[in-house]
């Protein structure tokens, strides 16, 4: 299945201003693929053989300690490329983290050979990739700063506010723990404390913010 150029340019507006030759070559080199929600797409240590452009849905890139502890490095939405995916292609290294789908996803996949060819041929392609790498590293550095120096209480409050919609957040304690890099038990205790203070109300898989 080929993607229509108009849809691609709507999702990746950067390419509206590049040469038509680049757009043609890029789309010709890509194949369309979907994946269902809650699927592990890549595991730490996997070799990366394709460049990925996310067309629809949400993905999560995370590290695990091999047991029950995880931390989300970043999430991706339509119009994103994966920082670690690109980094591995450019350095010919294996993936240092895991990637999974949060929702059903639609992707364009390009072989490593075609990716390197476009990078070599088009300065506009290099500018796109390197600017996304810079943005991605800034995001990861921000996470590292929060984890290292931030108080978990403040991080949890900010997380609930940021992720909620109309003061309601549908999630699980485990998902919050994974995103914040701590244990489910710690998050459960903190949420119970928030509830006792009247700051939130929560039931199974639903948190309602009342006073954060």
Secondary structure layout plus pairing:
Blueprint: H1 5-11, H2 20-29, E1 30-35, E2 40-42, E3 50-56, E4 59-64, E5 70-76, H3 83-91, E6 98-101, E7 105-111, H4 112-121, H5 123-149, H6 152-163, E8 168-170, H7 173-180, H8 184-196, E9 200-203, E10 206-209
Antiparallel strand pairs: 1-7, 2-6, 3-7, 4-5, 4-6, 8-10, 9-10
Helix pairs in contact: 4-5, 7-8
Describe the structure.
The protein has 212 residues and is an alpha+beta fold. It has helices at 5-11, 20-29, 83-91, 112-121, 123-149, 152-163, 173-180, 184-196; strands spanning 30-35, 40-42, 50-56, 59-64, 70-76, 98-101, 105-111, 168-170, 200-203, 206-209. β4 and β5 (70-76) form a beta hairpin.
Query: What does the overall shape look like?
Result: elongated
Biggest sheet statistics: 4 strands, antiparallel
Return residue spans where pLDDT drops below 50 for at least 5 consecutive residues.
Answer: none
Helicity level: 40-55%
User: Helices and strands, in N-to-C order?
Assistant: HHEEEEEHEEHHHEHHEE
Q: pLDDT average, as an integer?
A: 90
Residues in β-strands, percent: 15-25%
Total helices: the number is: 8
Major sheet strand order: 2-6-4-5
Distance between the termini: 47 Å
Beta strand count: 10
Structural classification: alpha+beta
> Whole-number radius of gyration?
19 Å
Keywords:
alpha+beta, single chain, 212 residues, three-stranded antiparallel beta sheet, 8 helices
Brief synopsis:
With 212 residues, the protein is of the alpha+beta class. Helices cover 45% and strands 24% of the residues. A hairpin with a 5-residue loop joins strand 4 and strand 5.
């Amino acid at each position: 299945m080929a993607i229509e150029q108009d849809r691609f340019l709507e999702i990746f507006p950067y390419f509206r201003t590049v040469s038509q030759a680049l757009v043609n070559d890029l789309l010709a080199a890509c194949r369309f693929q979907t994946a269902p929600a809650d699927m592990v797409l890549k595991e730490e240590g996997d070799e990366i053989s394709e460049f990925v452009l996310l067309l629809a849905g949400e993905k999560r890139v995370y590290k695990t300690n091999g047991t029950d502890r995880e931390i989300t490095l970043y999430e991706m939405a339509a119009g994103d490329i994966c920082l670690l995916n690109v980094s591995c292609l450019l350095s010919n290294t294996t993936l240092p983290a895991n990637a999974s789908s949060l929702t059903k996803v639609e992707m364009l996949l390009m072989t490593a050979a075609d990716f390197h060819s476009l990078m070599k041929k088009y300065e506009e392609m290099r500018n796109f990739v390197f600017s996304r790498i810079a943005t991605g590293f800034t995001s990861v550095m921000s996470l590292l700063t929060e984890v290292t120096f931030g108080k978990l209480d403040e991080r949890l409050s900010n997380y609930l506010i940021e992720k909620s919609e109309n003061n309601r957040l549908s999630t699980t304690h485990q998902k919050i723990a994974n995103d914040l890099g701590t244990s489910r038990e710690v998050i459960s205790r903190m949420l119970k404390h928030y509830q006792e203070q009247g700051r939130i109300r929560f039931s199974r898989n639903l948190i309602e913010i009342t006073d954060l």
